[in-house]
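DM between two lab members

TW: hey, do you still have the Quaternary amine transporter entry open?
JB: yeah, one sec
JB: this one, 197 aa:
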Amino acid sequence: MLLFSQAKAQVKTSEGLKGNQTENKHISPKDIIIGQYLGFTLLVVVSLLGTFGVMLIPEKWVGLLGLIPIYLGIMLFIKGEDEDENAILSSLNSGKYNSVFLSVAFITFANGGDNIGIYVPFFSTLTMNQLAVTVITFFIMVAIWCFIGYRLAAFKHVSETLENYGRWIIPIVFIGLGIYIMVENETFSALLSLINY
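TW: and the structure you got?
JB:
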């Protein structure tokens, strides 16, 4: 949503209204969407490679990967989101990449480390058919989230409300997903059987 609000601010600036303007690059919604898809595709490919590597581990121990989203959720409760808007915008304006969509792709991938920590354990609980449906659904959701972000960027109070409640909702979802992964792989039973010996 930050990038879409930056794009809207550029339009206002070019129309003679007050707004933020990036130094050398014009941010268009098209560049943001293409960059989101490129960065997200990289995240999914890395996660799938990790998932196929994890399949070599006995199923009951794969559930230990559920500790990753639980840890991420707890850290979000403690620290809040570590995504610094100024760092994102300065990355976008840094001139490292010739095109805006490559900058957006880099930002998406760089900020997606926690996504890999969530996707690998979650993907490892799915059958191949479920995995295919999940990946397709994820790609459809990128389009939906881009559309929602684009529309909501114009409403400052909406984005502030989402940020305030997101601070609590996202950690709960991460912790719940971690517990689900451990239950689905019967990891708690495996741990209890070790303790009983």
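TW: got it. The longest helix spans residues 156-184. The two ends are 52 Å apart (CA to CA).
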